[in-house]
Specification:
binds zinc ion, alpha+beta, 7 helices
Length: 198
């Protein structure tokens, strides 16, 4: 699984130009058909996306290129889930958040619980990215008065800012950058680690 830009034409161009690297061995990826089409529920309705599949010329593994708008095994776009997480960290309960987003309360509660369960792991992963992307970064210390969820959000925010500085551009969507940095695993099973930062 590789997270790519939401711009289909750009991904296609990068793929045919050999600009995308295999997450396993850094070899050159080449087009290899498409993965199964899937639904994505955004804030503005349902989108249908059909992720590209690519094959590594070096190790021969195939990878699905998932656009950064989505998270692994989640029907809702990362912006929608991110909005719920931020609102909850600010003190709002899962029911009013669900009402605001037009999603079932149980679904929103599931996102929040999973994010909280992975908060420490997510924070460590984000901190690794901060150091990887910004050699001048100061030590990132947990906020002693905060919660693991708030620290994870703060660390993700700093990691996105570091990524923006590194790329020299302002992200169209900060949550899509989060999705990319986390390889789509922001709400993955608690036993599923993030891939190593390199
Ligand atoms: Zn490879």
């Amino acid at each position: 699984m590789l997270i790519v830009t939401d711009d289909i034409d750009r991904t296609e161009h990068q793929l045919t130009a050999g600009e995308l690297a295999c997450p396993e061995c850094q070899g050159e990826l080449r087009p290899w058909g498409h993965a199964r089409a899937r639904r994505l529920r955004t804030r503005h309705g349902t989108r249908h996306i059909r992720p590209r599949r690519a094959c590594c010329r070096v190790c021969g593994r195939t990878h699905v290129l998932l656009a950064g708008v989505a998270l692994l095994r989640r029907v809702d776009a990362v912006e929608v889930i991110g909005e719920a997480i931020v609102a909850n960290a600010a003190g709002l309960g899962h029911r009013p958040i669900a009402a605001r987003l037009g999603r079932p309360a149980a679904t929103v509660r599931g996102w929040l619980r999973r994010f909280a369960a992975r908060a420490e792991r997510t924070a460590s992963h984000a901190v690794a990215w901060i150091y990887r992307l910004d050699v001048s970064a100061f030590r990132v210390d947990p906020d002693r008065d905060g919660t693991p969820v708030r620290f994870a959000l703060a660390a993700l925010g700093r990691a996105v800012a570091a990524a923006e500085r590194f790329m020299g551009t302002t992200a169209h969507s900060r949550w899509q950058v989060v999705s990319s940095l986390c390889s789509g695993r922001l709400l993955a099973n608690t036993s599923c680690p993030y891939p190593p930062v390199r």
